[in-house]
Every structure is written in C-alpha cells, then in structure tokens.
Amino acid sequence: MAGREELSITFRLNDLEIWVYLGPKPKLGITVSQSGKYIVPGEASLMVVSEYKKDATESSYPRHFFTEIICINQVEVPDDVSESFQAKEPRAHDKLLALAEQRAVPLRAATDLIAGTIGLRFHRQFVIEVINENFFALRSDTDYAYNYASSSVELLEDIRLNSNGIEMMPALREAVGRAAPEAIEFGASAMAWLLRSWVERDHVSKFMSLFIPIEIILRGYGESSDNVEEKQHTTASIQNLLVKHGGDERSNLIAFFNQAIAHQRPSLASRFEIMAKQAQIDGWQADIAAFRRFNSIRNKLLHRGDRQVRLSISVGEEFEQETRELEDLAERYVSWRLFRDASVYKSQWRPPRTKKQEA
C-alpha cells in the first residue's frame, strides 16, 4: 500500500465486534503447518509439522503482509469458569472454545462477508489464501486461548497389481481401442471430472464435482415411452381449454404454454431414476432415494446459496459420509454407462483425518 504499512479498523456487525487488520503483524499471530497429502503404507511420510508465531514477522511463512479478520462474540459464563480461564486451566479453555464452536455459523458468515468484500472491492490477493483459522477465547487484547488443526492427511491402501489385474488389462485395452470417436469424447468428459473429484480435498467441492460426471452420463435420458402418450393427451387437453376459455389473452397464453412444453424435460432426479431402472444394479431402488437426497443438497448449494446447508455440511463428519456415498454411486453408474458393467474397485478407504473446522 503506497505510503502505508498497515491498517486496523473495528466496527459492529449485529451482535459481533469485528477487528480487521492488514499489515505485517496480525494481532493473534499466525500458525503455519506443513504435511504430505498422503500416508503411504510401508513408506516414510511427512507428518504434520506446525509452527505458531505470535509475531508473524518471525514466522517461516514466505509472505510478510496479512489480512486478519477477528469476529468477537461476548458471552457470560459462570464465575468458576471465568476464574479457571483467567488461571489458564485447560478445562476452562475447552469450555470457552466449545462456546465459540456453537457460534460457528454466524462467525463464519461474518468472516466470509468481510473477506469477500475486501477481495471484491479492493483486491482478491488480500484474501486469496487462508493461512489459518481458529476459535479463540480472549483473556485480554494480547492474551488468549486458541485451537488449531492442520490440513487433512489421507491414509492410502497398500495396493499391488495382481494376476487378475494383469489378465483384465488386455480386455480393457481392446474395449477402449474399439470405441468410436464420439464414445471416446463422451467417456473422456465423464472421466475427467471423476479424476478431478478423486484428488479434491475440500468435501463441499468434491461433492459438487461428483455431480458433473453423473449429469454427463444422463445425457440422452428423457421421457420414458410408457408415459409419452399420456402427456401428449394432457397437453392437447390444456391447449383446447386455452382455445375455448382464454378470452382476449388466448393467443398469448397458448404461445407461452407451447414454449414451456417445448423446453420441458424431466428433472435430473427423474432422469437418474430412468437410468437406474434400466441398469438394475444391485440396490438400485436405494440408489434412487439416495440420489434424490444428494440432488436436494446440491440444489440448495448451487441455486439458492443456502448458507445454513453449506456451513453445516462443511463442518460435519456426516457430510464426509454423504460425499463418500455419492462417490460410490457416481463410480458405479459411470462404469455401467460406459462399460455396461457396474464393477468398480471396492475401496477400503476411510475418511482421512481432517482438520476440525474453526471460525
């Protein structure tokens, strides 16, 4: 910043007190962690190494200008908890930090709003990367308790190429080698998004990415033949009603109705149901119900920007399970659509040790 090394402002946002600092010395310091992405069985792996510096200028972090957003919610606690906290007893720390966790949704909402405003109205580089985020409990402006959790590390499986895999590879080579150009393009577009989802570490981004290969393989699925005649009859009946009773707006109403019908097609969930019934994969009825649930979450995230849904699923282990189930479903139906075979490697993968979300 020309002529300025730092900027500090405070203001109220509903019941929160907000401190915003831009400069080399954030008030609460910074924590930097380093780790590998994976733990490989039988091999040396880099475990999590964390470094906290109250004075950020002493940190090993390669940059020296930071944006710090502190959202403070004042709460009343029993005298014994307050006294224990002032005496720096760990149990009191845990109790107060748990209170902060309970306020995660409004705290994170305030942080997102302020960070987004800074990035949008000034420059995205002020907020381009999250270095750390924590719950904290203040004893004073310079003394506080805080928690921190590192990035996730995934424990990989000990995999080996066995005789079955060696035998299957020539058959796979022949099947792919005989594919028509349009089939190659179709398959590659779905596989590209599966590949992207497999390496995505953020569960919300992974969840959203898994929908794209499903949408791709649902191309071509539309109205089932058993209800086309019924819909045509209903359409004709409505058109007749508009002709007879549309009054002065008859022409406009008929034109609007015809346009709506022309652009009508089954929902994503309906098209998946058609495909699942055709595929008859074991458990396909449960897959239909599961996909409707996944699609509902996805629509809330994508179309309505439902913060409550987004924030609750981004902090809970339950959403990790939802994402794994969606991944399994996507893999099975992409495999069936491309190879007419739902066989996929049944991974023993369990969720990596993920960081505990903080606000």
Give me the secondary-structure topology.
Elements: E1 7-13, E2 16-23, E3 30-34, E4 38-39, E5 49-53, E6 66-72, H1 79-86, H2 90-102, H3 104-121, E7 136-138, E8 144-146, E9 154-155, H4 163-177, H5 181-199, H6 203-217, H7 225-245, H8 250-262, H9 268-279, H10 284-302, H11 307-315, H12 317-339
Parallel strand pairs: 4-9
Antiparallel strand pairs: 1-2, 2-6, 3-5, 7-8
Helix pairs in contact: 1-2, 3-11, 5-6, 5-12, 6-12, 7-8, 9-10, 10-12, 11-12
Written overview of the protein:
There is one protein chain. This protein is mainly alpha-helical and 359 residues long. It has two domains: 140 residues, no CATH class; 138 residues, no CATH class. The protein has a three-stranded antiparallel β-sheet with strand order 1-2-6, covered by helices on one side. The chain has a two-stranded antiparallel ribbon with strand order 3-5. The chain has a two-stranded parallel sheet with strand order 4-9. It is extended. The two termini are 28 Å apart.
